[in-house]
Amino acid sequence: MRSKIYSTIISIAFIILFFTIFYLQIIRWPTYHVLSQKNHIRLVPLEGLRGTIYDRNGLPLVDNRLSFDVIVLPQEIEDEDKTFSRVAKVIGVSKEDIKMTLEKEYQAPFAPITIARDINRETAFILEEIKQDIPGILVQSRALRWYIYNESASHIIGYLSLINKEELGRLRDYGYTMRDLVGRSGVERVYDRYLKGEDGGMQLEVDAVGRLVRTLGTKIPKKGRDITLTVDARLQSCVSEFLADLKGAVVVMDPNNGDILAMASGPSFDPNVFIDPNESRTATALLRSRAHPMINRAINGQYPPGSLFKIIVALAGLETKKITEHSSFNCVGKYMVGNIEFDCWKKGGHGLQNLREGLIHSCNIYFYNLGRKLGPDVLAEYAYKFGLGKSTRIDLPNEGKGFVPTVWWKKTAKGENWYDGETVNYSIGQGYLLVTPLQMAQVISIFATEGNIPRPHLIKKIGDSGIIAPKPKTLHISKDNVRIIKEALIQIVDSETGTGQRARVEGLKIAAKTGTAQNPQGEPHAWFLGYAPADNPKIAFVVLVEHGGKGGLSAADLSKRILEFIRDNTEILKGS
């Protein structure tokens, strides 16, 4: 009886074994055949290069350089200790570090693992020479983003970092993969989809020990589209160098069409740091720095304009006929609103001043009087007309709008009435009013062109297609009134009593205005803005030095150096 039971059990076991073998070898054979084939097929991705970024004269600002990584193929390692010991000595890490990386990154025997990135060329050559002795170790070349001018133009160009999960989910349909770097700021971010290359790859058949048998297929990668900026690389380098030890911003643009010729913010950062895996600590320090080097102060920094605002107030007075060019106010050095005293910057006062003299000497008392004649709502109206309180719509992310206060705003936001003392402050660019350096570059461009409002922009060409510059809008103001102010702007530099005389440049007539913006947290911010040549403007410029004191000193001195460089080293001022 027992033998029959054992026989039955054995028979059933054989039947099960038979059907299992039948199922695996016959029914599931196609599936396992494919898996077997896959084990002998290696997919090698080929990265599509990112587009090159050029300056207006065709000089590369950002390109791609050759980089070398060290790759381990686990299934091809014959003697782990011997191989890793030898590789460790060459690349300058410990054998234990290599093993830790393998343990952390291991996915499958055939899946490559990167153990060192961006090694130097000499190290790569040494590994290539001994590759017969270290099977399973490969040196793989790849393109690495290269910011040629380092910190210069960093706030314009931006930087890259690895795509995150949320971005990948949103961008996968556009050809992005988990290996991609994406733009985090600047042109790299705004034009990321144009700059991104299209990846390709090779499908290789290898034998049991990983040797190449044949290439089964190839998809050629495509480079992203090149982009040409409006920026002049030499001028940009100069401006960045001059600003290197300062906090502040510089903008140089063509007032006729809005081309940004240079834009710098200090302190700045080197975008290469975010590419180099060995610089991760430096990158983290930049992101956390209290000096805020990642902020583009030219478009994100928001400051009181100080006396720069006087040119808008002056035009508002002429346009509303509250004054003429001959209207005069007496400056005795102080101005009373009730029992509150407001001072002029010149103790003892300027004496009797007409409009031109009030601008040339930047007399606060003149503009206290004019500001009260106009009132806060008219001041706000003309601030808006000149583009303050709103974006210039430059092709960069996160542009600040500044702030233009009104009586209604104060009542609704603070539940308070507007006071005459606030109008007095408003009239000299103090109080609640905030602007960006780029906004002020647009403001002075309107005066330079006598009413055209250029839209600042950075892109000249994408690929081979030129970009048509946005057509300037027109601000309907009296050219005669604008010319009265322009005459004063010239005298601010040329006159022996002008506040901007330190910015004089031999052979170049300049129209300019100084500004000193009070700062509750320390020394005043120094401003200087203008255009040149005064009779045929080719450039508009703005310089801001945080905590720089009087605008007629530090900011004027910096402007002079920039203008001299433009005169001597560029073609910008030449031609019709």
Describe this structure in words.
Residues 17-26 have low confidence and may be disordered. The strands form seven sheets. Strands 2, 3, 4, 5, 10, 18 and 19 form a seven-stranded mixed sheet that branches. Strands 12-11-23-22-21 form a five-stranded antiparallel sheet, sandwiched between helices. The protein has three domains: 2-39; 43-229, Penicillin-binding protein 2a (Domain 2), CATH 3.90.1310.10; 233-569, DD-peptidase/beta-lactamase superfamily (Beta-lactamase, 3-Layer(aba) Sandwich). It is elongated, with a radius of gyration of 33 Å. Helix 10 (233-242) runs antiparallel to helix 20 (551-569), helix 12 (310-319) crosses helix 14 (364-374) and helix 14 (364-374) packs across helix 17 (420-427). By secondary structure, it is an alpha+beta fold.
Secondary-structure topology with pairs:
Blueprint: H1 2-27, H2 29-39, E1 41-46, E2 53-54, E3 60-72, H3 80-91, H4 95-105, E4 113-119, H5 121-129, E5 137-147, H6 154-157, E6 160-162, H7 165-171, E7 181-183, H8 186-190, H9 192-195, E8 200-206, E9 212-219, E10 227-229, H10 233-242, E11 248-253, E12 260-266, H11 280-288, H12 310-319, E13 329-331, E14 334-337, E15 340-343, E16 351-353, H13 355-360, H14 364-374, H15 376-385, H16 407-414, H17 420-427, H18 437-448, E17 452-453, E18 459-462, E19 465-466, E20 473-474, H19 479-494, E21 511-517, E22 525-532, E23 539-545, H20 551-569
Parallel strand pairs: 2-10
Antiparallel strand pairs: 1-8, 2-3, 3-4, 3-5, 6-7, 8-9, 10-18, 11-12, 11-23, 13-16, 14-15, 17-20, 18-19, 21-22, 22-23
Helix pairs in contact: 10-20, 12-14, 14-17
